[in-house]
Amino acid sequence: MINPNSVLSRTRQCQLLNIHRSSTYYRAKPISDDDQATMRKIDKLHLDKPFLGSRRLTDTLKEGGDRIGRNRVIRLMQLMGIQAVYPKPRTTKRNPDHKVYPYLLRNMSINQPNQVWATDITYIPMDKGFSYLTVIMDWHSRKVLSWRLSNSMDVSFCIDALEEAIHHYGCPDIFNSDQGSQYTSGEFTQVLKHHQIRISMDGKGAWRDNVFVERLWRSVKYEDVYLNAYESMTHARSSLGKWVNYYNQQRKHQTLKATPDQVYYETIMPLIAA
Protein backbone atom coordinates (compact mmCIF):
# COMPACT_ATOMS: atom_id res chain seq x y z
CA MET A 1 0.00 0.00 0.00
CA ILE A 2 0.98 3.69 0.17
CA ASN A 3 4.31 4.39 1.90
CA PRO A 4 4.37 7.96 3.25
CA ASN A 5 8.18 7.77 3.57
CA SER A 6 8.77 6.70 -0.03
CA VAL A 7 10.81 8.85 -2.42
CA LEU A 8 7.88 8.47 -4.83
CA SER A 9 5.04 10.96 -4.48
CA ARG A 10 1.63 9.80 -3.27
CA THR A 11 0.24 10.48 -6.75
CA ARG A 12 2.90 8.31 -8.45
CA GLN A 13 2.41 5.47 -5.95
CA CYS A 14 -1.35 5.54 -6.63
CA GLN A 15 -0.71 5.42 -10.38
CA LEU A 16 1.56 2.37 -10.01
CA LEU A 17 -0.98 0.62 -7.76
CA ASN A 18 -3.89 1.65 -10.01
CA ILE A 19 -5.88 3.16 -7.12
CA HIS A 20 -7.45 6.59 -6.57
CA ARG A 21 -5.63 9.08 -4.38
CA SER A 22 -8.80 9.82 -2.39
CA SER A 23 -8.94 6.22 -1.15
CA THR A 24 -5.52 6.62 0.51
CA TYR A 25 -6.84 9.35 2.79
CA TYR A 26 -9.39 7.08 4.46
CA ARG A 27 -9.89 7.74 8.14
CA ALA A 28 -12.42 5.88 10.22
CA LYS A 29 -14.91 8.27 11.75
CA PRO A 30 -16.26 6.81 14.99
CA ILE A 31 -19.72 8.16 15.59
CA SER A 32 -22.63 7.04 17.73
CA ASP A 33 -25.80 5.56 16.26
CA ASP A 34 -27.75 8.42 17.83
CA ASP A 35 -25.57 11.04 16.14
CA GLN A 36 -25.87 9.25 12.80
CA ALA A 37 -29.66 9.21 13.03
CA THR A 38 -29.70 12.91 13.92
CA MET A 39 -27.34 13.77 11.07
CA ARG A 40 -29.69 12.07 8.61
CA LYS A 41 -32.56 14.19 9.91
CA ILE A 42 -30.47 17.35 9.67
CA ASP A 43 -29.45 16.44 6.11
CA LYS A 44 -33.07 16.05 5.00
CA LEU A 45 -34.14 19.27 6.71
CA HIS A 46 -31.19 21.14 5.22
CA LEU A 47 -31.93 19.78 1.74
CA ASP A 48 -35.57 20.89 1.91
CA LYS A 49 -35.01 24.16 3.81
CA PRO A 50 -31.40 25.30 3.35
CA PHE A 51 -32.16 28.65 4.96
CA LEU A 52 -32.58 27.07 8.41
CA GLY A 53 -29.71 27.91 10.74
CA SER A 54 -28.67 25.90 13.79
CA ARG A 55 -31.22 27.60 16.06
CA ARG A 56 -34.22 26.88 13.83
CA LEU A 57 -32.96 23.38 13.02
CA THR A 58 -32.77 22.70 16.76
CA ASP A 59 -36.33 23.96 17.23
CA THR A 60 -37.59 21.83 14.33
CA LEU A 61 -35.90 18.69 15.69
CA LYS A 62 -37.39 19.34 19.14
CA GLU A 63 -40.84 19.75 17.62
CA GLY A 64 -40.37 16.32 16.06
CA GLY A 65 -39.64 14.76 19.44
CA ASP A 66 -35.84 14.89 19.58
CA ARG A 67 -34.20 15.83 22.85
CA ILE A 68 -31.33 17.89 21.52
CA GLY A 69 -29.47 21.12 22.25
CA ARG A 70 -28.23 23.74 19.84
CA ASN A 71 -24.55 23.07 20.62
CA ARG A 72 -24.95 19.47 19.47
CA VAL A 73 -26.70 20.58 16.28
CA ILE A 74 -23.84 22.99 15.57
CA ARG A 75 -21.27 20.23 16.17
CA LEU A 76 -23.03 17.83 13.81
CA MET A 77 -23.47 20.49 11.12
CA GLN A 78 -19.74 21.20 11.28
CA LEU A 79 -19.01 17.47 11.01
CA MET A 80 -21.28 17.25 7.96
CA GLY A 81 -19.71 20.32 6.40
CA ILE A 82 -22.95 22.29 6.05
CA GLN A 83 -24.05 25.68 7.24
CA ALA A 84 -26.93 28.01 6.48
CA VAL A 85 -25.01 30.81 4.80
CA TYR A 86 -27.81 33.00 3.56
CA PRO A 87 -29.13 32.28 1.10
CA LYS A 88 -26.73 29.46 0.04
CA PRO A 89 -26.16 26.12 1.81
CA ARG A 90 -22.44 25.44 1.76
CA THR A 91 -20.61 22.14 2.14
CA THR A 92 -17.24 23.63 1.27
CA LYS A 93 -15.56 26.33 3.35
CA ARG A 94 -13.55 29.23 1.97
CA ASN A 95 -9.86 29.66 2.83
CA PRO A 96 -9.16 33.41 3.24
CA ASP A 97 -5.55 32.90 2.09
CA HIS A 98 -6.57 31.49 -1.31
CA LYS A 99 -7.27 33.60 -4.39
CA VAL A 100 -10.96 33.85 -5.33
CA TYR A 101 -11.82 34.16 -9.02
CA PRO A 102 -14.70 36.22 -10.49
CA TYR A 103 -18.04 34.74 -11.53
CA LEU A 104 -18.05 34.53 -15.35
CA LEU A 105 -21.50 33.13 -16.10
CA ARG A 106 -23.73 36.12 -15.42
CA ASN A 107 -25.90 36.84 -18.47
CA MET A 108 -23.99 34.23 -20.47
CA SER A 109 -25.87 32.08 -23.00
CA ILE A 110 -24.80 28.48 -22.34
CA ASN A 111 -26.00 26.50 -25.34
CA GLN A 112 -23.51 23.72 -26.02
CA PRO A 113 -21.65 20.90 -24.21
CA ASN A 114 -18.21 21.58 -22.74
CA GLN A 115 -18.89 25.30 -22.68
CA VAL A 116 -19.22 25.28 -18.88
CA TRP A 117 -18.64 22.57 -16.29
CA ALA A 118 -19.71 22.86 -12.67
CA THR A 119 -18.85 21.04 -9.44
CA ASP A 120 -19.77 20.77 -5.77
CA ILE A 121 -19.52 18.48 -2.71
CA THR A 122 -22.31 17.01 -0.59
CA TYR A 123 -22.60 14.93 2.59
CA ILE A 124 -23.66 11.29 2.13
CA PRO A 125 -25.07 9.38 5.15
CA MET A 126 -24.16 5.72 5.48
CA ASP A 127 -25.21 2.86 7.76
CA LYS A 128 -22.08 3.36 9.84
CA GLY A 129 -20.63 6.83 9.46
CA PHE A 130 -20.73 9.04 6.40
CA SER A 131 -18.80 10.15 3.33
CA TYR A 132 -18.64 13.01 0.83
CA LEU A 133 -19.64 12.99 -2.83
CA THR A 134 -18.33 15.31 -5.52
CA VAL A 135 -19.42 15.49 -9.17
CA ILE A 136 -18.33 17.24 -12.33
CA MET A 137 -21.40 18.26 -14.37
CA ASP A 138 -21.76 19.64 -17.88
CA TRP A 139 -23.92 22.75 -17.45
CA HIS A 140 -25.73 22.63 -20.82
CA SER A 141 -26.75 18.96 -20.84
CA ARG A 142 -26.78 18.37 -17.03
CA LYS A 143 -24.68 15.24 -17.71
CA VAL A 144 -22.60 13.94 -14.79
CA LEU A 145 -19.18 13.60 -16.40
CA SER A 146 -17.43 12.09 -13.38
CA TRP A 147 -17.84 11.62 -9.66
CA ARG A 148 -15.87 10.54 -6.60
CA LEU A 149 -16.72 9.39 -3.07
CA SER A 150 -14.36 10.06 -0.16
CA ASN A 151 -14.20 9.79 3.64
CA SER A 152 -12.64 13.26 3.85
CA MET A 153 -13.02 16.57 2.06
CA ASP A 154 -9.36 16.57 1.04
CA VAL A 155 -8.76 18.23 -2.32
CA SER A 156 -7.40 14.99 -3.83
CA PHE A 157 -10.80 13.43 -4.59
CA CYS A 158 -11.92 16.65 -6.28
CA ILE A 159 -8.80 16.60 -8.47
CA ASP A 160 -9.37 12.92 -9.28
CA ALA A 161 -12.90 13.68 -10.49
CA LEU A 162 -11.70 16.66 -12.56
CA GLU A 163 -8.87 14.73 -14.20
CA GLU A 164 -11.18 11.84 -15.07
CA ALA A 165 -13.69 14.19 -16.71
CA ILE A 166 -10.95 15.87 -18.74
CA HIS A 167 -9.53 12.47 -19.77
CA HIS A 168 -12.88 11.24 -21.10
CA TYR A 169 -14.51 14.43 -22.41
CA GLY A 170 -11.78 16.94 -23.14
CA CYS A 171 -11.74 20.41 -21.58
CA PRO A 172 -14.52 22.94 -21.01
CA ASP A 173 -14.12 26.61 -21.81
CA ILE A 174 -15.10 27.57 -18.24
CA PHE A 175 -15.08 25.66 -14.94
CA ASN A 176 -17.47 26.95 -12.25
CA SER A 177 -17.41 26.17 -8.53
CA ASP A 178 -18.13 27.80 -5.20
CA GLN A 179 -15.39 29.47 -3.15
CA GLY A 180 -14.62 26.35 -1.09
CA SER A 181 -11.00 25.79 -0.09
CA GLN A 182 -10.81 22.66 -2.25
CA TYR A 183 -11.50 24.70 -5.39
CA THR A 184 -9.44 27.78 -4.51
CA SER A 185 -6.40 25.68 -3.56
CA GLY A 186 -3.31 25.93 -5.72
CA GLU A 187 -3.40 22.17 -6.38
CA PHE A 188 -6.87 22.36 -7.94
CA THR A 189 -6.54 25.61 -9.85
CA GLN A 190 -3.19 24.48 -11.25
CA VAL A 191 -4.93 21.61 -13.07
CA LEU A 192 -7.36 24.08 -14.64
CA LYS A 193 -4.59 26.50 -15.59
CA HIS A 194 -2.50 23.69 -17.07
CA HIS A 195 -5.37 22.88 -19.45
CA GLN A 196 -6.05 26.60 -20.10
CA ILE A 197 -9.55 26.38 -18.61
CA ARG A 198 -11.06 29.68 -17.46
CA ILE A 199 -11.96 29.68 -13.76
CA SER A 200 -15.31 30.96 -12.50
CA MET A 201 -16.47 31.05 -8.88
CA ASP A 202 -19.91 31.70 -7.44
CA GLY A 203 -20.57 35.10 -5.94
CA LYS A 204 -20.52 35.00 -2.15
CA GLY A 205 -23.95 33.96 -0.89
CA ALA A 206 -25.32 33.39 -4.41
CA TRP A 207 -26.44 29.76 -4.27
CA ARG A 208 -28.29 30.01 -7.59
CA ASP A 209 -24.97 30.45 -9.38
CA ASN A 210 -24.56 26.66 -9.20
CA VAL A 211 -28.24 25.72 -9.13
CA PHE A 212 -28.05 22.67 -11.42
CA VAL A 213 -25.65 20.81 -9.12
CA GLU A 214 -27.79 21.78 -6.12
CA ARG A 215 -30.78 20.20 -7.87
CA LEU A 216 -28.73 17.08 -8.59
CA TRP A 217 -28.07 16.63 -4.85
CA ARG A 218 -31.79 16.64 -4.15
CA SER A 219 -32.41 14.04 -6.87
CA VAL A 220 -29.64 11.63 -5.88
CA LYS A 221 -30.51 11.78 -2.20
CA TYR A 222 -34.24 11.21 -2.57
CA GLU A 223 -33.88 8.63 -5.36
CA ASP A 224 -30.94 6.63 -4.02
CA VAL A 225 -29.14 7.74 -0.84
CA TYR A 226 -32.17 7.89 1.47
CA LEU A 227 -33.55 4.63 0.07
CA ASN A 228 -30.36 2.68 0.73
CA ALA A 229 -28.47 2.38 4.00
CA TYR A 230 -25.00 2.04 2.46
CA GLU A 231 -23.14 -0.63 4.44
CA SER A 232 -19.69 0.31 3.14
CA MET A 233 -17.86 2.56 0.70
CA THR A 234 -17.98 -0.31 -1.80
CA HIS A 235 -21.77 -0.54 -1.44
CA ALA A 236 -22.11 3.24 -1.75
CA ARG A 237 -19.96 3.40 -4.89
CA SER A 238 -21.88 0.55 -6.50
CA SER A 239 -25.30 2.04 -5.75
CA LEU A 240 -24.32 5.59 -6.70
CA GLY A 241 -22.70 4.33 -9.90
CA LYS A 242 -25.93 2.62 -10.95
CA TRP A 243 -27.92 5.76 -10.14
CA VAL A 244 -25.55 8.02 -12.11
CA ASN A 245 -25.88 5.71 -15.13
CA TYR A 246 -29.68 5.83 -14.78
CA TYR A 247 -29.60 9.62 -14.41
CA ASN A 248 -27.39 10.10 -17.49
CA GLN A 249 -28.95 7.47 -19.75
CA GLN A 250 -32.62 7.05 -18.79
CA ARG A 251 -33.88 9.89 -16.57
CA LYS A 252 -35.34 12.63 -18.79
CA HIS A 253 -34.77 16.15 -17.56
CA GLN A 254 -38.05 18.03 -17.27
CA THR A 255 -36.75 21.21 -18.89
CA LEU A 256 -34.65 19.57 -21.60
CA LYS A 257 -37.29 16.89 -22.44
CA ALA A 258 -34.44 14.40 -22.93
CA THR A 259 -31.79 12.53 -20.98
CA PRO A 260 -28.46 14.25 -20.24
CA ASP A 261 -26.66 11.79 -22.53
CA GLN A 262 -29.03 12.55 -25.41
CA VAL A 263 -28.55 16.29 -25.05
CA TYR A 264 -24.78 16.02 -24.62
CA TYR A 265 -24.01 13.70 -27.54
CA GLU A 266 -26.65 15.00 -29.96
CA THR A 267 -25.30 18.53 -29.49
CA ILE A 268 -21.60 17.79 -29.42
CA MET A 269 -21.40 15.47 -32.44
CA PRO A 270 -22.18 18.26 -34.98
CA LEU A 271 -19.54 20.42 -33.26
CA ILE A 272 -16.95 17.64 -33.62
CA ALA A 273 -17.91 17.08 -37.27
CA ALA A 274 -17.55 20.77 -37.99
TrEMBL record:
- List the PROSITE patterns: INTEGRASE (PS50994)
Q: Name one GO biological process term.
A: DNA integration
What InterPro entries does this protein map onto? HTH-like_dom, Integrase_cat-core, RNaseH-like_sf, RNaseH_sf, Transpos_IS3, Transposase_IS3/IS150/IS904
Source species: Cycloclasticus zancles 78-ME
What is the official name of this protein in its record? Transposase
| Any one GO molecular-function label of the UniProt entry | nucleic acid binding
Residue span, Integrase catalytic domain: 109-268
Give one Pfam hit by family name.
HTH_21
Superkingdom classification of source: Bacteria
